[in-house]
Amino acid sequence: MRYHYNRDTLYIRGNLNAVSTGVDGGLRHVSTLLNHTVEKDFNHDNPLLFIRELLSKANYADDAFGLLTAVWMQDLCILQYDYITVFVTAGVSNPNPDPTKPHTINIIVTSDEGFSDAALLETIITVTEAKAHALRLLGRDFTGTTSDAVVAASEGPVVHTYAGTFTEPGKRIYSAVLHGVMEAIKRHEGTIPVTAPSYFIYSRYGNTGWFEWKQEGCPYYPCHFPGQSCDFCYCPFYPCRNESLGEWVDSSSRNGKVWACTNCTLLHHPEVAAYLRTHPDAMLEELINVHKE
Q1: Using one digit for the tens of pLDDT, what is the confidence trace for 224-241?
Q2: Exposed (0-12), middle (13-18) or buried (19+): which is 72, by Cβ within 10 Å?
Q3: What is the pTM of this model?
């Protein structure tokens, strides 16, 4: 599963089993998820056709789920908690049923560990509970807007049968959505000014909990070598399972093994990072060959 974004669109790519409450929603296998920014006065007779046109321009097949929002992607919040990654854009300028005003909280949950169909559906419940909690903590007297949407997707063989708040994936989803909705609203409303999407990682080291990673002023630079690129500090291929780049190690916090790529420098080489920026769908072997050249 991979993701990339530009000024107005987030794309998530993979072999995904997914459920969506958005445009042409349902439960099916898809290759793409997207969240696209439209103008505040957006009015299209056929939103599904509009989304398919976006996919066509990106040279992607139309087996996809798409969401639309008036929030710019610079206000996007991306949160990673182990195998769960959550993407949130949130505008709550108008919770009332007036379609002429911009408002939407779009939440996409992805898992690198497979979910059953029931777990995907239950994710929608978990997300909604966390979203309502976040709005309450922000002092809002509503539990959502009139056009909120949720997409949940996973890749790989089924590992998790359920995703309620007391399950391991549910705990991670709830925590990420709770934190992500609050942070996304602050960015959209200008409380926290930003010029690019924000990344949050749940860490168990030092001060356990959510922290925002920022390239500027990173205390670990250079973590590999002087002049390294930090554009992909959190690798979009993780876990790549390529044993020439990383290895399986015993987990200190979970039963079993986890993928460790501490010593991998592939995406830190400037020429490789530049290639991936301009070829966001490049495969790992392709990037390895770029580095060899």
Answers
A1: 999 999 988 878 888 888
A2: middle
A3: 0.91
